[in-house]
Amino acid sequence: TGLTAVANGVPLGPLTEEGTAIAAVTGSYAYPAAPLPPVPVREPRDARRWWIPLLAALLVVAAVVGGLLLFSAKEVTVPSVLGAPRAEAEVTLRNRGFDTETVEKASRDEAGTVIGQNPAGDSRVEEGALITLTVSTGPGEATVPDVVGDGRRAARKALTDLGFRVEETEKPSREVGENRVIAISPLSGQRLERGQVVTLTISTGPASATVPDVLRQSREAAREALGNAGFEVAVREEERDDVDPGTVVRQDPGGGQRRPQGSTVTITVAKEPSTVTVPDVTGRSDAEATGALAAAGFEVSRRMRDTEDPDQDGEVIAQSPGGDAKAMKGSTVTITVASFDDSQILPEDDTGATGTTGP
Q1: N or C terminus of the chain with fewer C-beta within 10 Å?
Q2: Strand ranges (E), 217-310
Q3: Phi and psi (nearest 5°) for 202?
């Protein structure tokens, strides 16, 4: 290297690469030279910062590559698959180059139907992006509530709040009031999938019918006719002496009117009066008077009274009670019958004269 080792001012010889001096050959004895410490070799200052340019170069390269990738990425429109079946939606997206993943969620939509997607349909994303689909597992089940007897609105609300769909039918009913639930199908207490149909039968109240005309019919015939038409029957009685007992003389409502079935029709039926009009039998014969009074429901008591008028013989000349008076049926009417004694008349003599016998 051109360097010479020196010991105590005496040149020893050149240094080897390991820093060991080679003793100079002289005429006298030379001791081996002691090893010297290595002389540090200083590197240039610029050589210790070699990594800085390299790092800067790498950053530039990364920026260029990133920019190329950014500007070279292809954007596509995400198709909307909401409402489609899960399998159909997945095929549609994969055919457009997208990846898919699925999450499930309970809803009122039919099980297996896509109810959400992210990114949304019609948005722009990179080709091959991941699309997350939210798929309905169905609405689940609920118990059908007991709404029989409830009002129409309350029953519908109770069912729709549980997720059921409601349909209605109407039916006349005497027992259940108008606009109230008569029946429910399926029956209350059953488990049913939400979204299924529950049918309510709603009362329209009693059916209406025409009231039969039962005037002048017997009590029994009137009751039968009204009952067959769907009506209840109330009976009142009224004393009448102009019609047969048991005959319908009035009805309310009248025949021909329309009324709800199950409502009441009142009929008024004649009955024998407790008092009747006493027939006037004066001037009639004994036999005629007795027959007339008996037909009117009276007993007859007879009294005889002498009369000087032979034309009155056997004729009712008085009665008690009098004619047209009111009396209890079955009571007694006393009649007075005239009696002429023809023994008081003398036979005619030869001269044609008549006379009476003396005392």
Answers
A1: C
A2: 232-239, 248-252, 258-260, 264-271, 275-277, 299-307
A3: -105, 135
The string of DSSP codes covering 93-153 is HHHTT-EEEEEEE--SSPTTBEEEEESPTT-EEETT-EEEEEEE----EEEPP--TTSBHH
Task: Report mean pLDDT in 10-residue bins for the chain, 359 residues.
Answer: 49 50 46 56 59 78 63 81 95 94 88 94 93 90 95 96 94 91 96 92 93 96 96 94 92 95 94 88 94 93 92 93 90 94 64 49
Q: How far is CA 317 from the centre of its chain?
A: 83
Please give the C-alpha separations between residue 192 and each of 142, 186, 316, in angstroms, as whole numbers: 6, 9, 95
Whether pTM exceeds 0.85: no
326 contacts: CB under 8 Å, gap ≥ 6: 275, 276, 277, 278
Could you tell me the maximum CA-CA distance found in the chain, to the nearest angstrom?
253
Mapped onto helix, strand or coil, the DSSP state of residue 335 is strand
- Nearest-angstrom CA–CA distance, 206 and 304: 70
